[in-house]
Amino acid sequence: MAKMLVVSDQSSLAGLAASLLKARASKKLREEAMERIRAANPTVDLDHLEPGRILVIPALEGERAQPTRATPLMPLGDATQMLSDVLAGVEASNKDRVEEAKATRNVLTSPAVKRLAEQDEVLKESLVAWKESAAAEEESARREQESFKAAAAAWTDDLEALRTLTGEG
């Protein structure tokens, strides 16, 4: 049965295979393990692994009871719940960011600040620059949130597909 693995510090497929196999595994076993891992992860650049990368690890001949230098991934159902919790946190943080921007806008567009800006050219120019910057920031935040939501939906779908592949679903 395949399992999921989070890469901790390996930088290559060879390093990963070495951590998964028993110390005295033959060269042939290591090569077969690398081929099987590569086949199970066709879209991943296994020659340049980064910490945090999630991989599908098929059953391997000569496998260690517990891999070294790699952290087993939590059950995928738990990962799905964790993703949901992270999304809720990001959404709450974004709402706070929007509220803070509104509060700042309310102060800087208040009649009192407008009156002061009419008397101070530097303040007036600063307010104009702030409005342009704030508008660009709000648009950027909106695009980032849309992109994050789309990515999160894809991650959730991928996690569900992995749960099905690994027999958890």
Descriptive tags:
2 domains; three-stranded antiparallel beta sheet; 5 helices; elongated
Distance between the termini: 13 Å
Q: How many domains comprise the coordinates?
A: 2
Helical fraction: 55-70%
Count the DSSP helices: 5
Beta strands, count: 3
Main sheet specs: 3 strands, antiparallel
Strand content: 5-15%
For the largest sheet, list the strands in their spatial order.
2-1-3
- Given the C-alpha coordinates, what overall shape results? elongated
> Multimeric state of these chains?
single chain
Structure described in brief:
With 169 residues, the protein is mainly α. It has helices spanning 13-20, 27-40, 76-108, 111-119, 121-166, and strands at 3-7, 54-57, 70-72.
Task: Provide a descriptive summary of the structure in words.
The protein has 5 helices and 3 strands; from the N terminus they run E-H-H-E-E-H-H-H. The protein is mainly alpha-helical and 169 residues long. Mean pLDDT is 80; it is low at 67-73. The radius of gyration is 25 Å and the shape is elongated. The protein folds into 2 domains: 3-72, no CATH class; 76-166. A 3-stranded antiparallel beta sheet has the order 2-1-3. The two termini are 13 Å apart. The relative contact order is 0.13.
Give the SSE layout.
Layout: E1 3-7, H1 13-20, H2 27-40, E2 54-57, E3 70-72, H3 76-108, H4 111-119, H5 121-166
Antiparallel strand pairs: 1-2, 1-3
Helix pairs in contact: 1-2, 3-5, 4-5
